[in-house]
Description:
By secondary structure, the chain is α+β, with helices and mostly antiparallel strands.
Amino acid sequence: xxxxxxxxxxxxxxxxxxxxxxxxxxxxxxxxxxxxxxxxxxxxxxxxxxxxxxxxxxxxxxxxxxxxxxxxxxxxxxxxxxxxxxxxxxxxxxxxxxxxxxxxxxxxxxxxxxxxxxxxxxxxxxxxxxxxxxxxxxxxxxxxxxxxxxxxxxxxxxxxxxxxxxxxxxxxxxxxxxxxxxx
Length: 183
């Protein structure tokens, strides 16, 4: 396999992070990889907000847990039984904020391509990641949080947790070649 295919095959969703920060230069390189993503008509309807510090991630975690407890008590209990952290104690996170697009263009698809670039760049640099949408809970309920992190005219798209696995690296999911349909 090529180096790129090896990185793709090795990537896993990290749900337990070590208490070890990701340095600023590495986070910059990972974020810049996201900026290389293509977009419909080159609109680039995204902003990448890098939260470089566990205290910032914990702020969003707490807001999201408060909402989850209210709107999905069973989900909240499940999170509590798994350690009580929505965002797995990640030391860093990149928020992908998306700008709604007119007509038939969709920022969601462009945002997904950005996410792919970010997680693969992270893995290639030895940084583990997990794509999470649940951070949205905190942004949906807390106008101050939205104002603090999301630029005017942009919505929460998705977030990517970044850090180093606590313990042995996770196992990538098993692939099912039967899901490929040849026509």
